[in-house]
Amino acid sequence: xxxxxxxxxxxxxxxxxxxxxxxxxxxxxxxxxxxxxxxxxxxxxxxxxxxxxxxxxxxxxxxxxxxxxxxxxxxxxxxxxxxxxxxxxxxxxxxxxxxxxxxxxxxxxxxxxxxxxxxxxxxxxxxxxxxxxxxxxxxxxxxxxxxxxxxxxxxxxxxxxxxxxxxxxxxxxxxxxxxxxxxxxxxxxxxxxxxxxxxxxxxxxxxxxxxxxxxxxxxxxxxxxxxxxxxxxxxxxxxxxxxxxxxxxxxxxxx
Amino acid sequence: xxxxxxxxxxxxxxxxxxxxxxxxxxxxxxxxxxxxxxxxxxxxxxxxxxxxxxxxxxxxxxxxxxxxxxxxxxxxxxxxxxxxxxxxxxxxxxxxxxxxxxxxxxxxxxxxxxxxxxxxxxxxxxxxxxxxxxxxxxxxxxxxxxxxxxxxxxxxxxxxxxxxxxxxxxxxxxxxxxxxxxxxxxxxxxxxxxxxxxxxxxxxxxxxxxxxxxxxxxxxxxxxxxxxxxxxxxxxxxxxxxxxxxxxxxxxxxxxxxxxxxxxxxxxxxxxxxxxxxxxxxxxxxxxxxxxxxxxxxxxxxxxxxxxxxxxxx
Lengths: 255, 314
Prior knowledge:
The complex is a heterodimer. Chain A is an alpha/beta fold.
């Protein structure tokens, strides 16, 4: 049993998801059980189409499970909530608003002075100082994703859901963004549920990695990553963990 | 036959052919002016080819153009320009279009936004709109005259009718095609009701709404001739009808030219709206060069450079 364990933030129990299609039913998720602790960084790793994004959407309140329960802080998830912010791969920041207005989106109920202070703080935290008045179309992909992260952090959420947030970036920017993300996470300590299909990404970021099987998506294994940050990509331990993940994903680690 | 149209057409063609090869930016007005020159030259030549002979009282034979040439048109138009008729008619027409189009936008945008946001709304009004849309505004003229008389209101009604449907349909589609990610983000941050509308739904659909306004204004402008031919006794459309009755074809064509030029100005004005910061993201430049053209240009430059070095080195 995972319910009631102190420190559990997210409790997913027996979640199934299937879509009705023209020819019968498509089972996307099968019997998912997962407990995420407060402040934990969990990566959900799996091949395309394994239902990992669907799982994140269900936990985030944008989709519903066919059966099973999802509870956050002991309460069932009934929809999206400003205490838990979703960061999408395609950013989801508003192209008609400046960086400042985007970051201030969740701060509408605060006083103007308070808003200005928080916005300034988070724009600086994600390294976008000097771009306050810019529109998203004037920013690079990495900068847009920084705006999305700042907008999420600005409301001090308990949980941040990230659905392949770095997937649209080039490999160098992606590496930089991972380091930034870790720095911010260590500073603010939100619980992060991060979906990726990139083995290295999961290994560099996560406290624990939830490895999923191809459709119908099940949890193959939950792999704890014992290494402390910053992690050395060249270490023996890193290599071993990587091989283990490739094994679980059913692909060879030497081509 | 005069030679100037051939000279002008030759120069214009040369400009177009040379500009095609040029990679450096050229003055914006150059190509449009060249095509316009070609058109006017073609117009003139066509007129000169279509003539009929008239025996004058003194026994000489004169060749008369069936259609007025550009020059004849210009000469004729000096009169309505000088006596203020043209200005008065232009103002009358612009007034009708402004009021008619304004009413259409004031009703059409909110209705379209509403129907776009509520699926049931779209289901309810869409079939009716699609049924009314294909009926030409000209078909409404008898009813318009019956209801509003031979007054401004008739013409305004027809213009409203013509521009209403594209605005409703455009606004509705604009809302229904907002990317999910924007709506989800808004919901995630707790935006609801009017705030959701003001901060997300409206700005997200604004570029497409402006495009539908542009399209609708073009249609409204097209309808003015039909609307003013029967429904009123002033305006550019009326001027065409009136000049035809007076057998003054120079003035008929002159009015057509004025309507066309004003149409360009109106479209240009609406396009200015596309340059505002809050909507600019919605318009990937239609007149910028495409990726294929850009790459080809780069390859050309590279080839030129290579052959240059080879020749220089050899």
